[in-house]
Amino acid sequence: MPWFENAVIYQIYPRSFKDSNGDGIGDLNGITEKLPYIKSLGVDAIWLSPIYKSPMKDFGYDVEDYRAIDPIFGTMEDFDTLVSSAHKLGLKVMMDMVLNHSSDKHKWFQQSKLRDSKYSNFYIWRDKVPNNWKACFGGSAWTYDPERGQYYLHSFLKEQPDLNWHDEQCRQAIFDEVRYYLDKGVDGFRLDVINAVGKDPELRSNPFMFGETPRPYDMQNHIYDRNTEYTHEYIRQLRKVIDQYDDRALLGEIMIQGKGQMEQSASYTGENNDELQLCFEFSLVKQRLKASNLRKVAGKWYKLCSLEKGKTPCWVLSNHDVPRAISRAGGKEPIARLLAVYLLIQRGCSVVYFGEELGMLSKDFPRKEIQDPLGKRYWPIHKGRDAERRPMQWDFSENMGFSTAKPWLEPNYTKRWHLLTVESQETDRDTMLALYRALIKLRKERKEISRCDAVFCDSLPRGMLSYRFVKDGKCTVVVLNMSSRWHRISLSEIAPGCDGMEIALKTYNKVNLSIENGEILVPPTLGVVLTN
Ligand code: NOJ
Ligand code: CA
């Protein structure tokens, strides 16, 4: 089985993980220093948000040079050290490839402005604004460039011009940047907004629709600036590049509208499994994290990415763009523990966002302290993404051990912060950190989890979620009581045909729980995993 088909991947937002040189910003040497900690979680891989040379208008998602490391993060040598140290520990490394757009400071764009250079068509230029497309970060998607005397397309900031994937030379240049890192031994890529590449060649206007927010961008049905037949074709070409190397993975970020569109995300695995091996599925980001929603989403995701179809579902609840799942769940740790079970006891690939394993919380910043361009533009409708990018909470030293200097974002000193550090959780058996480790260990030990799609038990009371993995007489059964009531559950219901079931894990060790006469009485907001 390729490594990514049963992997737990740990996402690091490099600016916020660990500062090694006292400038208040996390860096590559900081990550290298903390690799043993990451390894101790039991995860298989890390993925890093962008570390390339960048003017940092969108904190690295505006790449000026794909082949250079931004000095804020270190040097290419530091990067090579990080990769080789990770490999020595048996950890894979995935990078974030931002291929829909570059920075306006990228050499390609600078040259493209000159028209008659070989980069002329690397971006999307028009004499007049050709359509109604909006930029995701505000305003029109078209900005006039006086030097070239034309408008160029940008799906995000005006400093992030969109690359023209229809141009053969441009595509080949992009693939060369990908090869550069494949040759360095990187194990795969998280692909930024990959369903936005290969836009409608006629640049037709998107139709109107009622969106989830009044933001003009959300009031359009994005059928022409995303998800075209070309998008799929170009992704197939990219997959071919990857397939020339051993065991490398593509994990796509698929922008969706509203809470649905799971089919859209799944479509990027390819009709013949020839596109991305893994796709993020974000519909739970927009829904209440309650049992019935988890049931619906997981059931559908298993169908769309089934074993039978040869696909690998990828599970994720938090990242650097959305408030942390625990905060979306009202900051309640008992619920976050249930979500951890849901995230990690699944077939496929599960992605943990740094600090999630501690129960770190998102907390907004006052307006004057906002750094994120999205927050600056849309406050107070959207307060930006700084809240989920606050520094990792290591210990009780200055700035929670993140940095000896003033951090680029203030650490989250909530009332309970002293309980939410690695230092405070390392020693106790019943912490969130201990739970993450135990869940990952169990997931690895129980082979049936990676060998079949979950089967759901749908006869339980409201607020309960139960699913199981059964293979060759071995069973793993998850029971999550997300309600505020006690529920007595019979094993014959949740684990039919499974003999000798025992409690393998509880979201709180300290809670007394036993199987009596084939039943368990599950307390409110408690999760249990049973095995035989
Ligand atoms: C998605 C990234 O996750 C986000 O942080 C970024 O701002 C946009 N893509 C634009 O690259
Ligand atoms: Ca630093």
List the helices and strands and how they pair.
Blueprint: E1 8-12, H1 28-33, H2 35-41, E2 45-48, E3 52-53, E4 65-69, H3 76-88, E5 92-97, H4 107-112, E6 125-126, E7 142-145, E8 150-153, H5 168-183, E9 188-191, H6 229-243, E10 249-252, H7 262-267, E11 278-279, H8 291-304, E12 314-316, H9 325-328, H10 333-344, E13 349-353, H11 373-378, H12 422-426, H13 432-445, H14 447-451, E14 455-456, E15 464-471, E16 474-481, E17 487-490, H15 491-494, E18 502-506, E19 515-516, E20 519-522, E21 526-531
Parallel strand pairs: 1-2, 1-13, 2-5, 5-9, 9-10, 10-11, 12-13
Antiparallel strand pairs: 3-4, 6-8, 7-8, 14-15, 15-16, 16-21, 17-20, 18-21, 19-20
Helix pairs in contact: 5-6, 10-13
Bound molecules: 1-deoxynojirimycin (NOJ) and calcium ion (CA).
Task: Give a description of the structure.
With 532 residues, the protein is of the alpha/beta class. Helix content is 25%, strand content 17%. It contains 15 helices and 21 strands. An 8-stranded parallel sheet has the order 11-10-9-5-2-1-13-12, covered by helices on one side. Strands 14-15-16-21-18 form a 5-stranded antiparallel sheet. A hairpin with a 7-residue loop joins strand 14 and strand 15. The chain is globular and about 80 Å long. The chain binds 1-deoxynojirimycin and calcium ion. 1-deoxynojirimycin binds next to loops.
- Beta content comes to 15-25%
Termini Cα gap? 24 Å
- Note the main sheet: 8 strands, parallel
Order of adjacent strands in the largest pleated sheet: 11-10-9-5-2-1-13-12
In the predicted model, the low-confidence regions spanning at least 5 consecutive residues are: none
| Helix and strand composition category | alpha/beta
The number of helical elements comes to: 15
Note the overall shape: globular
Number of strands: 21
Q: Specify the helix fraction band.
A: 25-40%
Cofactors, ions, other ligands: 1-deoxynojirimycin, calcium ion
Round the mean pLDDT to the nearest integer and report it.
97
Report the C-alpha radius of gyration, rounded. Answer: 23 Å
